[in-house]
DEAD/DEAH box helicase family protein
Amino acid sequence: MTQLQLLTGGSQNDPSFHQPLLTALLEAINTVPPGGHIFLCVAFIRQSGLALLDAALTEAQERGVALQVLTSDYLDVTEPVALRRLMLFAERGAMVKIYQSQNNAGFHLKSFLCLREDDLASFQATAFVGSSNLSRAALTQSLEWNWCLKVTPQSSPEARRSIVELQQQIACLAADPRMVELTHSWIDAYGQRYRKSAGPLLRQISGDTLADEPFPPQPNMIQIQALDALQQSRAQGFKRGLVVMATGLGKTWLSAFDARAMKASSLLFVAHREEILRQAEATFQRLEPDAHTGLYTGEIQQEANWLFASVQTLARAEHLTRFKATDFDYIVVDEFHHAASPTYRRILDYFRPRFLLGITATPERTDQADILALCDDNLVFETGLREGIVAGYLVPLLYQGIYDENINYDEIPWRNGRFDPEALDHAFASRKRAEHALQKWRQHAGQRTLAFCISIKHAEFMAEFFSKAGVKAVAVYAGSAMARNAALQQLDEGDLQVIFSVDLFNEGTDLPAIDTVLMLRPTESRIVFLQQLGRGLRLHPGKTHLVAIDLVGNHKACLSKPYLLQSLLSGGNGSGKGEMGKLPEGCFVNLEPELVPLLEKLKAGIRVRVEDDYRTLKEQLGYRPSAAQIFHYGVDFSKLRKQHGSWFALVHGQRDLNEQEAMVFTQHREFLLGAIETAGKTKCFKFILLQAFLNLDGLRNPPALSALAKESRLVLERHPDLLALDLADKQKAFAADSADWLKYWKQNPIRHSTEGSSGNLDNYWFEVENNCFKAKIVPPEHAETLHGMMQELIDLRLAEYRRSKGLEQRIAKLESSGRLKEVAVPASFAPLDFQEAANEVPYFPNLKIACGHFKTGRADEVEMQQVEGYSGQLDPERHFLARASGNSMNGGKQAIEDGDLLLLEWITPEHAGSITDQTLAIERQDETGDSQYLLRVIRKSPDGSYLLHAHNPDYPDLAATESMRTFARLKAVLR
């Protein structure tokens, strides 16, 4: 069957108007299957027109369609910026050639051919020949005439012959010697000519006013703050840094602005997905149109000085070794929360740029622990959802937590931190659940909805169900009948109401028109949950807010999402700790009544054992936490080792070590514990030495002492805070490759790690042999796995060291001022940083002193607080504040209510006094090693024993035991 159609663009009020070329051309491009061909042969190309086809051409290349573009420099009308954009397609396999019209004939072609199948038995094609070049005006507005010819296997021989002839003419033209391959060098030369020619004037004549931007993009206020922080960080000596910005605030643009600020002549941008790389390259190219960008596909691109590479390709040894460690001034690692994987680590350990920037939207320090270690624990700048909404760069969020009443998640298997996909797929294909979702969608949704589904089957089921209910809906996924760009365009134009998607829109996709997200899948990962929300938070004309409709089930992996969101929007860090503040104007977190008791039950859960913390964090993250993540989550490692022996013993007990890791742990557990996990940390040098040892692949190839000393100095310089803390001024002046530095490093961590001192076993795990530093017993087959396990522990120890040194510095400051004496505080209390201020004493926000039964509390955070309503003299060395919890003491003359602020005095040898009939705070350790606290009146029995008495008669007296210790006396109740 043959279809011949005349497309006559122009004003829709013109009686001759039929259809602009753009609509038909996009339909033809989107229907070319894998193995097909697309040919664009036009006299000139403007960026405005290429942008209209960009998404469709990109998706065509992704599904295996061959792309060929033939254009010209005729009259210098083709824009250099459009040619730079075409280089992105050329890097991914497209043939892009340009006809050099100087001293040659004019070039007036305007032809497009979409060849779906060129086998004569099943020939299918769509061709356009007419008057339209590739510009916005020509594709959408101008009065244009174009013939559209559609050919199928049933078409006449003449029609098929016409397509064959057009294809042959394109092939002849491509082989013409006047046609040259497009390169960055050619664009450079052409750009100089273009700026002096009539090209800009012709642009105005053509009506293509949206082609060139009159001014380059400028950073917004949040980006300006981040750029200032980055500049200060580099001034302090840091060579790596992490920036955390909520989705939608312009992380990629920030990296481009910073690269420009650094005047980076060579740049590497690393990401894990092709879509992120393509968008990033387009962003950098837009900011610096003259930059030579390029995609790394396995061959060094001599022209490209700004290189964009996938981590999967670059991390392979045969690719890494094609570069020198110092080849790049500036390295950007996008979606940096993925960077803790071994593939990323190989890249980060190999290169030595002037600066490395990690960018991510991960919201909380626990999530960031691993990646912070990769950035030398240097969190340069952080801004979240709340700040973005308040500043007006993101729209307000209206969250509707819907009880997922038709699914009992307790019946769905939970394996390795996630629900079983097959069980979910079966449970979700339910008409009752679909009807429930449809009802809630109709109640809350806006105009344009993106819905997240668990699988293709689920997406198809939901799209069919909504469609039968009269909703314009479609399922979109890799290989779906409708192309992604077509679905988004129809959604934007109102021809669709809902897109049901599967793993297409989580990362790297800008969808500003979306005003509703419908969450139909249980997202175990908080990072993925926030990425999905971020798809709709971007500004768009006419959009006032984003509605999030979330089906929340009866499982803590689901229930944590509303609490996380409440925390982030109210100014918390997403950890669930600290006080909740007011939400930004226009933001709401609404929960159906059935969810409230489930959330309260979740919040009321008491951490008892280390493995409980471990499992909780694993469920929050969606993967096995690292040692550093558990540390930042608040787990006490002395308690962990008391219960389990070591970090990897805990992980092994949770069956989270793979077969190789379990074998290495069994054979080298003492080495991991003694050489790293419990090694002394008077200074950071031992861990810097081990990091350098790993950087040099020391388990496989023991490094020479000179190489190890040099690498150690380079690692230490990446930690300017530690270098300033632990290195004397004399040694700071030593160069990394100097004899003085080598001598110093030999006398310090190398000697202490090999010869031993004080008979400590951990000093004997390494030895010097033939002037090389080596681990004593490490079979080659264990080297790779042991390397990764050692790295995890080194990251932990450096994090511990930073925290401990911060506390020790505060104590030293107090001791030097003469204001800190020996104070017998509980061992679990952090050292205090007292400040000179009248009636100001330490306040422990996490220390809950029970007025009921013993209650677990933490004293790992402290702040100074003004005391009001107390006339007595206060001493910050003797007095402190904590909250009461419970009602056992709410009787008598000095009644204590739940939540009252208690003023207490440490019990020390100097201030002990009598304890009988006094209201005292008592400490004990439970069976897990956690500290517990209780407030009671001490009564002495006739037999000489002591009882803990409550003012409230509902609470019986408790017998004092040897496991209990009085540590503070109640001075006053402050309300």
Q: What stands out?
A: Residues 209-214, 575-580, 757-763, 807-837 have pLDDT under 50 and may be disordered. The first helix runs from residue 21 to 30. The longest strand covers residues 840-850.
